[in-house]
Structures are given as structure tokens and as C-alpha cells.
Known about the structure:
The protein is 32% helix and 33% strand. The protein contains three helices and four strands, in the order E-H-E-E-H-H-E. The radius of gyration is 13 Å and the shape is globular.
Amino acid sequence: MLTHAVFFKLIDCSPEGAAEVRDRILALRDQIPQLRHLEAGVDVVRSERSWDVALLARFDGRADLDAYAVHPAHVAFAAWLGPRRERSCVVDYETT
């Protein structure tokens, strides 16, 4: 199994802006068949080290992650998020 973890810093880090990003991430659950697990959340601590929104997805393997990356629903989400995102970071790792 492959885990895909992404953290986002938003330009508008208001509670409403972050919640909209989270909700749009979660809407991908029913649109992308390669997703085995998807969760997203808004940071509640809001420390200097915090990111605003986190995404955690699991896939059967690299091929499914690659298919997710080019899936039209993911591409549309990424295009929507682009002007709202200050920066992001990602870690993809194998799990047992």
C-alpha cells in the first residue's frame, strides 16, 4: 500500500476557506476509484509550525497514485486550489 500525505498553506487561512478546501478534497472520495482511503482535516492548533489543511490518501500502489494524479477530478481540484494555495509539501511512502 502507498500513503500520500499532503499539507497545504492557504492564502486565505480563514476557518471558512480551510473548510472549503477540506470539503473539496473529501468530495474526491466518490469520484476517483483508485482511492482506497481518503481523509482531510483543518488544523486546530494553529501554531507557527502548523499547516492549514492536511490530506491523507492511500492507494494499492504507485500505478494507482499515478492514475489519481491525472484523473480529471483531481486535475480540476488542483486547478481550483492553485490560486488559493500559498505552498504545499508532500510525502509518499510505502506502508504494510
